[in-house]
Design goal:
Distance between the termini: 45 Å
Organism: Nocardia terpenica
Shape: elongated
Number of domains: 2
Protein name: DUF4097 domain-containing protein
Structural class: mainly beta
Radius of gyration: 21 Å
Order of helices and strands: EEEEHEEEEEEEEEEEEEEEEEE
Helix content: under 10%
Length: about 260
Amino acid sequence: MPRFDTPKPIAVTVDACSAEVRLVASERSDTVVRIEPVDTDNGSDVTVADKTKVDFYADRLTVTVPPASSWKKVGERSSVAVTIELPTDSGLIVKLTQARLYAEGSLGACEVRLESGIVRLDRIGALRAQITNGDIAIEHIAGSAEADGVSGPIRIGTAAGDLRLSTVNGGLDLDRADGKVIAKTVDGALRIGRLNGGTAELMNVTGNIEIGIGEGTAAWIDAYSRTGSVRSHLAAQEDPGEFDTTVQVLARTRDGDIAIRRATA
């Protein structure tokens, strides 16, 4: 079980195939890495665990999990379990193939390259993501976020900074947006539960679009659906009037409904 003295946040790089990775960030002055075969009676799992490399130099931790000798089918269990306990606000670069990553606590800027698998993050400083086929969920992003993908949904609790999403097959489910949002997809629903400021540009070909406008916020709305319905549940008025904040909404879909309402929470 490698242990390293890390009195300040570090940079972590994980390159994993057919693995389950867990990160636990907390106020601590060391970093601990555990590598374990998922099945100790499985020779392939044991071999992959033995060949997993852990390197640490100049506040940079690198963990490399090689592929199993026999390629696993999508959906099969992982070969190796990787647990990393590290200081709060550490940065993360991760490349996953048929792998899962779960993170607890606060991390710094994160770069995710997801060939296939699942990523679950708690609180992060910023995000850059490339998704080939996978599922990403993040509770809170403090800074900017950019994601480009082919297939897979993105779920975010709060995006405090600007967010840009471009994907082919997969939607966006965003509970709260405090900055600018640009989201474009061919096939997928786009939802913002609460838009508090800035602008939102949501565009797709197939899928519904839903936007909630925060209390005390006026909205300039430009929405169009070729075959679906467009409904605004906000009271119409000529100018922002007594509202303190104004947002701008641009929504476009070909085969979907658009709904704009007052956020309830």
